[in-house]
Amino acid sequence: MSKRVVIVGGGVGGTIIANLLAKKMRSEIKKGEVTIDVVSDKPEHFYQPGLLYMLFGLKHYDELVRDERGLLDPMVELHLHPAIKIDKDKNEVHLKNGVVMKYDILVLATGSRPVPEMIPGLKEGGNWFYEVDACLKLRNELMNFKGGKIVLTIGLPHKCPVAPLEVSYMLDDWFRQRGLRDKVDFTYTYPIGRLHGLESVAHFAAKTFPKHGINTETLFNMKEVDPNKKTVTSLEGVTLKYDLMITIPPHKGAQVIEDSGLGQNGFVPTDRFTLKMEGSTNIYVVGDTTNLPISKAGSTAHFESDVIVENIASELRDGLTPFRYDGKVFCFIETGMTKATYIMFDYNNPPNPVTPSALIHWFKLTYNKVYWLTPMGIL
């Protein structure tokens, strides 16, 4: 009897898993023993890290988007209807068009989304670059900014955890190139008692921010924003005035996860090694959808996908799931417009940022161009 693998989500994790699994199980698929379905609410696949470059006019939208069908292996079936309910007891995925899909193995790759409305006034008073329209709006704000106070605020949790650092370093360079840096007072805030969740990255920022003239305010958890007075107040009782506020909004997972009772705030309780949903034997979770205390980044989804594919293939063939995820993550960090560093770490080895260089910056720009090989399962 044919086994059906359903993948909910057409982002980087879901697409990689579909393509790698199709390559690995091509013989079984041709024989009709295995089918692979991807459920996505969008026909396009968007490269989200490119928004950081779009913000500064270095990337155009057309460079960051591809047709999802064109990225998927021909043996993978694509369903362009949102999933509105997942019934884990009946092994069913319900689509908005009324179709009910039965599965033997389910992969949740539903990602995460900015939710600025969680903070009163943030949606009206803040600007962010984590979504296309918001990014273009902030780009226009920056192009018309002639000086004043810029405050960067950060909500937790959020994806692309080094992006707040990157945009800070890049803004410093960008304003210097325009001869405006001496007219800009820039303050970076962070919700905990250091400048980043990863201790070594926080130490790196603490050493380098003064060289860039970046002010800092830690233990700053956003409570409310007053768009009229142009102030942001923290739960700790600190109020900062701004002329332009850039924010990283807090994130939630997909609504279908909450509506199906699979996880709080859309994040699914996940075993850190097997990447299976806790309490489930046939549901895998990848990328931003997990509740694991590791970076919500594309590379995380990539490394997790390799493990998930190997275990699904092994499970379908012989009932075994011997592979384990070790927490591996890799992130480039832009430290300006012309230099970058990187971090690589796992559950047992903390990150250690290397000395920034132009070479690493160009490595990141190169990866931006060849990214499309990643979801295709080639890179």
Write a structural description.
- With 379 residues, this protein is α/β, with parallel strands linked by helices.
- The protein folds into two domains: 3-111 and 254-328, FAD/NAD(P)-binding domain (3-Layer(bba) Sandwich); 115-250, FAD/NAD(P)-binding domain (3-Layer(bba) Sandwich).
- It contains eleven helices and 21 strands.
- It has helices at 12-24, 26-30, 51-54, 68-71, 122-125, 132-143, 163-177, 199-208, 255-259, 298-318, 358-370; strands spanning 3-8, 34-39, 44-46, 65-67, 76-79, 83-87, 92-95, 100-102, 105-108, 112-114, 148-154, 184-189, 215-217, 222-226, 231-234, 239-241, 244-248, 251-253, 283-285, 329-334, 340-345.
- The protein has a five-stranded parallel sheet with strand order 5-2-1-9-19. A four-stranded parallel sheet has the order 13-12-11-17, with helices on one face.
- The longest helix has 21 residues, at 298-318.
- The protein is globular.
How do you describe this structure in short?
This protein has 2 domains: 3-111 and 254-328, FAD/NAD(P)-binding domain, CATH 3.50.50; 115-250, FAD/NAD(P)-binding domain (3-Layer(bba) Sandwich). The protein contains 11 helices and 21 strands.
Descriptive key words:
FAD/NAD(P)-binding domain, 379 residues, 21 strands, alpha/beta, 11 helices, five-stranded parallel sheet
Chain-wise SSE layout:
Blueprint: E1 3-8, H1 12-24, H2 26-30, E2 34-39, E3 44-46, H3 51-54, E4 65-67, H4 68-71, E5 76-79, E6 83-87, E7 92-95, E8 100-102, E9 105-108, E10 112-114, H5 122-125, H6 132-143, E11 148-154, H7 163-177, E12 184-189, H8 199-208, E13 215-217, E14 222-226, E15 231-234, E16 239-241, E17 244-248, E18 251-253, H9 255-259, E19 283-285, H10 298-318, E20 329-334, E21 340-345, H11 358-370
Helix pairs in contact: 1-10
